[in-house]
Design brief:
- This protein has 7 helices and 8 strands; from the N terminus they run H-E-H-E-H-E-H-E-E-E-H-E-E-H-H.
- It has helices at residues 7-16, 53-61, 83-86, 108-119, 145-160, 188-191, 196-212; strands at residues 44-50, 66-74, 94-101, 127-128, 131-132, 138-141, 171-172, 178-180.
- A hairpin with a 2-residue loop joins strand 4 (127-128) and strand 5.
- Helix 2 (53-61) packs across helix 4 and helix 4 (108-119) packs across helix 7.
- The radius of gyration is 16 Å and the shape is globular.
- The two termini are 27 Å apart.
Length: 229
C-alpha cells in the first residue's frame, strides 16, 4: 500500500508512472441491457469494491439518487474487519463501499455503469493504480439475487462488446457481509482534497463523473459526517 507517500514521493510517481490512476482514462461504457424493474421502494443497498475506498466512496457520494455511501470492508469476517489487519491482504476482505440509493431515482444498473466507467479500472487484477493486494480487488457484493443476475449479465455484455482492452476481472461475491470502516476513513476525499494521493488518484474520478454523467452528478456530496452512521 502506497497511500502515505510524501509529497516528493507522489511527485516522483506522477512524473515516472504511466499506470497510475490519474493517467488512466475514464470511459463511458454502454448502459446495461438488463436492469432492475421499476419499484416503489424508497431505498436499496449495493456494495462495490474497486481499489482504495476513499475514491470509490467519493464518486458515489457525488451521484444523484445516492442516499448514503459508507467506506468499509467486505469478503472476510467481522473479527478481522479492521484497517491495519485488512491492509495485510490476508483477511479476505476488500476495501468496499456500501451505497444506499433511491431506486426510484437511479437504478442499480446505472450505479454499475458508473462503477465501471468512472470509479475504477475493472481489468486490473488485485490492484488499482498504485495500490496492490487482494484487498484492492475489483468486486461486486450483491445484496439480492436480482443484483447478482444483473451484475453477471452486465460483465458478460461489456466483455462481449470488447469495451475494455483486456477482460474484466471483477469478481461477483455473494453472501458477504459489509462492515463499516473506522471513522477517520469516512468522507476522506472531501475532508482531504489536498492530500497528494487524493489529488492524483481520486479527484480526476470526480471530474470524470461530472463530464461523463452530467445528469447524474451532484456538486455537493452526501456525507457520512452529516449523520448517516
Amino acid at each position: 500500500m502506497r497511500r502515505h507517500l510524501t509529497w516528493m514521493g507522489w511527485l516522483l510517481v506522477a512524473v515516472l508512472s504511466c499506470g497510475g490512476a490519474a493517467a488512466q482514462t475514464a470511459r463511458l461504457v454502454p448502459a446495461p441491457a438488463v436492469d432492475e424493474a421499476q419499484t416503489n421502494a424508497a431505498h436499496e443497498v449495493a456494495v462495490f469494491a474497486g481499489g482504495c475506498f476513499w475514491g470509490v466512496q467519493g464518486v458515489f457520494q457525488h451521484v444523484n439518487g445516492v442516499i448514503d455511501a459508507v467506506s468499509g470492508y467486505a469478503g472476510g469476517s467481522e473479527a478481522n474487519a479492521q484497517y491495519e489487519i485488512v491492509s495485510t491482504g490476508r483477511t479476505g476482505h476488500a476495501e468496499s463501499v456500501q451505497v444506499t440509493f433511491d431506486p426510484r431515482r437511479i437504478s442499480y444498473g446505472t450505479l454499475l455503469r458508473i462503477f465501471f466507467s468512472v470509479a475504477h479500472d475493472p481489468t486490473e487484477l488485485n490492484y488499482q493504480g498504485p495500490d496492490e493486494g487482494t484487498q484492492y480487488r475489483s468486486a461486486i457484493f450483491p445484496t439480492t439475487p436480482e443484483q447478482a443476475r444483473i451484475a453477471t449479465a452486465y460483465i458478460a455484455q461489456l466483455d462481449q462488446a470488447h469495451v475494455f482492452p483486456a477482460p474484466i476481472v471483477t469478481q461477483i461475491e455473494n453472501g458477504k457481509v459489509f462492515y463499516p470502516a473506522e471513522g477517520y476513513h469516512q468522507d476522506y476525499l472531501t475532508r482531504h482534497p489536498d492530500n497528494p494521493y487524493i489529488a492524483y488518484n481520486d479527484l480526476p474520478k470526480i471530474n470524470a463523473l461530472d463530464r461523463l454523467f452530467p445528469d447524474r452528478y451532484r456538486a455537493d456530496p452526501v456525507l457520512v459526517s452529516t449523520g448517516a452512521m
